[in-house]
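Form 12-C: Joint structure prediction
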Amino acid sequence: MSSPRIAVVSAGLGEPSSTKLLADRLRDATLSALTAHGQTAEAVDVVLRPLAQDIASHMLTHNPSEALAAAIAEVVDAEAIIAVTPTFNMSYSGLFKSFFDVIEEGQLASIPTALGATGGSARHSMVMDTAMRPMFAYLKAQVVPTGVFAASEDWGTASGLDRRIAREGQELADLMVALPRRRDADPFDVESEAFVSFEQMLGHA
Amino acid sequence: MSSMQFGIFSVSDITEDPTTGRTPTEHERIRAWVAMAKKAEEVGLDVFAAGEHHNPPFFSSSPTTILGYIAAQTERLILSTATTLITTNDPVKIAEDFAMLQHLADGRVDLTLGRGNTGPVYPWFGKDIRDGIELAIENYALLHKLWREPVVNWQGKHRTPLTGYTSTPAPLDGVAPFVWHGSIRSPQIAEQAAYYGDGFFHNNIFWNKEHTERMVRLYRNRFAHYGHGEPEQAIVGLGGQVFMKPTEREAKERFRPFFDVAPVYGHGPSLEEFTEATPLTVGTPEQVIERTLSFRDFAGDYQRQLFLIDHAGLPLEEVLEQIEILGTEVVPVLRQEFDRVRQPGVPDAPTHAARVAAAREAGTRLGEQGRAWQEQGARSDLDTGAAIAQQAEDAR
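Section 2 - Result
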């Protein structure tokens, strides 16, 4: 059996991107905490910038490009996600939101999740609690208590960023071990007990 | 009799021609449909299917009216729908309207049921969109009964109960119009089509072949599960979208301005990307033939192929030319090629005559139980609910 996968979603627009940097750091912290649990995992990067046009097209046509379909599959099939966005206008970026908007409803329910955001100054840090958490609550993801916000200045000062990243990685690893995600049955799988036969549907009707 | 039926279907949009800036009037578009249908018959196509909408920019709110008018001016064309809203229409009115149309068209009628995708239509007609699947199931169960039982006693959740109701006129020759269940993404509707042994129409024009394959496979397997035959004997219909000129370059040059700003997919992916991802084919008749033949690779041998050719503001003369090319250059080759590779045992596309013959053989025509029509109330052995309960009992 292959090791569980963690999808690391980052919506940074720059190259290099501090959003991607924060995502990488959260990934490393999670992987090392998992090692301490005696477990291994594989992390897969899902970088949204190259998918921006495909995401817009998908919204218009409901038809994902091959690259976008693969990215969505990485996320919905993962055992956990790390999701990091830059802060725009008091919220996650439109690209970040749009990516999660094109994922079908219910696909992320119960998935262990670590959130992160970046911004120009610490004054934007409320984005974690006013935007990120409500959205992932709606998606019914299990979100860890710590959410790291990294302001530009955090990268150059002893602001405790390392400590916060390590704590969030630890929390995600703990959650993956203690409360792994549950998966809904594939509605096309007639062998599954969750498959609703037409007799059952007529009974409801 | 033909093993496959080919035709055209339309959503009835009224859209500006982006190359001239001119928007046709409702009247012009309604008359254009009549011209398209007559042209379709003239060049040897089999089916004209009308969409149903209840909001601008669409005009087709009353499909049986226009199909009845077309029926009077054609002789062979099968009149169908794409789709008839089984959720917000009263199933009693569907039973009456389509039986009437069936009589007037001498049996050249079938219909495709769909749920509709415009949110406000549900509240406008007194329904709730969250009940969409439930309405599709309950309403069709009643429609199915109305076309098969002389006197119906019925009670459900979404409409007033019926006691001693007889739907008039009875279906022509005592055989209901053939029903296709249309679904783009709901496995429940594939399951419904399979349960009744009805047709399944998957309008794949915005979808990739992997998705279409999954929907059709579920329907075929469940068709067999419910005892209607082998999976290969299920009745499948597919959509398609084409634009043709003698060369691929000409076709793309002419179609691209319409594509780029089309409702639904305009301002999105490029023509080339959309062609790659969906059945859209813009090119020569040969390219359309090749693409359409490839549908069989993932859907199996199927019975009906409908093409969308009149949307996004394409002018009527251009649309008529597309129908002409379909009828003279594309469909004759498709018939021949599909027939050549068709597996034995695959049923022909449904027609009224064939269904009457089959029903006569099986003794299932309405009114064949003596004078049941006049004398009898609803019978438990004809009652769907009771029959299902009996099946469940037998299975135990």
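Section 3 - Comments
The CA atoms of residues 23 and 201 of chain A lie 44 Å apart. Helices of chain A lie at 18-36, 52-61, 66-76, 94-101, 127-138, 161-178, 198-204.
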